[in-house]
Amino acid sequence: MTHWLISFPSAAMRIPEEDLPDVVRDSHAMVRRAKDAGVWRFGGGVDEAVEPVRVHADGGTDRGPEAGLTHLDGGFAVLELATREEALVWAARFAAACRCPQELRAFGAGSEAS
């Protein structure tokens, strides 16, 4: 089984304000569906009000993301699925619920975090 990251940047959500309650309802329903299917591992939205910091090995910190890179925002879900094809189906479901395209990435095999 592979852990798959399904995500979208905040800028991808170009929906009218009045549609937001429906998007919230539908995206929460997708989370419940993934949980009911036993594939949900974790997920959520990045709190954009909290500034990111880079933490160094000595414990020192720098404000903001890595120089030259954009910040991480938006929402994400990590699902555990057997195939890429299954991951594509789930990503399409989340895209429909969130009303925006989703990015799909696989976590590397053999991770100690699994």
Which CATH class of the domain at 2-46 and 73-106 applies here? Alpha Beta
Percent of residues in beta strands? 25-35%
**CATH architecture group name of the domain at 2-46 and 73-106:** 2-Layer Sandwich
| Count of discrete alpha- or pi-helical segments spanning 4 or more residues | 2
Largest beta-sheet characterization: 4 strands, antiparallel
Helix content, binned percent: 25-40%
- The CATH topology assignment of the domain at 2-46 and 73-106 is Alpha-Beta Plaits
**What separation lies between the terminal Cα atoms?**
10 Å
Which stretches of 5+ consecutive residues score pLDDT under 50? none
Q: Based on helices, strands and strand pairing, what is the structural class? A: alpha+beta
Overall, the morphology is globular
| CATH homologous superfamily classification of the domain at 2-46 and 73-106 | Dimeric alpha+beta barrel
Mean pLDDT: 90
Question: What is the succession of H and E elements?
Answer: EHEEEEHE
Number-wise, the strands total 6
Q: Over the alpha carbons, how many angstroms does the gyration radius reach?
A: 16 Å
Which strand order do you get reading across the main beta sheet? 2-5-1-6
How would you portray this structure in words?
- With 114 residues, the chain is α+β, with helices and mostly antiparallel strands.
- It has a domain at 2-46 and 73-106: 2-Layer Sandwich (Alpha-Beta Plaits).
- It is 28% helix and 26% strand.
- It has 2 helices and 6 strands.
- The strands form 2 sheets. A 4-stranded antiparallel β-sheet has the order 2-5-1-6, with helices on one face. Strands 3-4 form a two-stranded antiparallel sheet.
- Helix 1 (20-36) packs antiparallel against helix 2 (84-98).
- It is globular, with a radius of gyration of 16 Å.
- 17% of the residues are buried.
- The mean pLDDT is 90.
- InterPro entries: Dimeric_a/b-barrel.
- It comes from Amnibacterium setariae.
- This is Transcription initiation protein.
